[in-house]
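Reading a protein record of the kind used here takes little practice once its layout is understood. The fold follows as a row of integers, each naming the local backbone shape at the matching residue. With these conventions in mind, the following record can be read line by line:

_____
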Amino acid sequence: MPTLEQIFIYPIKSLDGISVSQATVLPSGALKGDREYAMVDQNGHYINGKHNPRVHGLRSHFDLAAETVSLSQQDSEAAATFHLEGDRADLESWLSDYFAQNVRLIRNSDVGFPDDTTSPGPTIISIETLKTVASWFPGLTLEQVRRRFRTNLEIAGEQAFWEDHLFGEPNQPQQFQVGDVQLLGINPCQRCIVPVRDPQTGEAYNNFQRIFSRRRQETLPSSVVQVHFNHFYRLAVNTRLSIHSSGGNLQVGDSVRLHS
């Protein structure tokens, strides 16, 4: 029986994540607290790793209970701690100095700021998948690959790319259940430039996307619905909440069951 082994939440979009033992799935389908905040510039555009390499040199540590974030530059022991709401002006000032431009922190507690706004549920992947991807790139560890792809839910007890069976034909989502929460697997997640780069230094891994796409095509399970793969730079599965579920709680150790 596959089980939920790891849960990761990323409180501020594009910054470091935090491992938690349990999480709440909101009525929107999003994980509570995941990508709840986002950094934007004066024009309202996201400040993220896709467009600003300085994101990779920014370390963040969150205390979810205290609602605080501690920020520091890579390899620096000097950290500044802010309450995400009470110290908003000071936090924005610190970020503005770091990025050398005006930065605002915006919040959406209902759905967060997911990349896929039509499927805002938690992304899901098998731990064996992450291990296999790490084996494609000499020098990369499981943890480094995990930080590159930033998936919410990691599943143990199944073979690599097991999650590719969590989606069906277009407009025919696969229903599955994690604990008591019913989710719909929608499609394999299209990746951006971020996994190409070292999450701490921003240094690009030579030919990462080309190597990944070739190996992904070679290892794609034959039983998987392939119409979604207009290209093979895809990993993990995007989800939505089932119409039969209003959310609920996920906990490490929960079983994962496919519905026929």
About this structure: The chain has a mean pLDDT of 96. Residues 37 and 107 are 4 Å apart (CA to CA). The chain is about 15% helix and 30% strand. The radius of gyration is 18 Å.
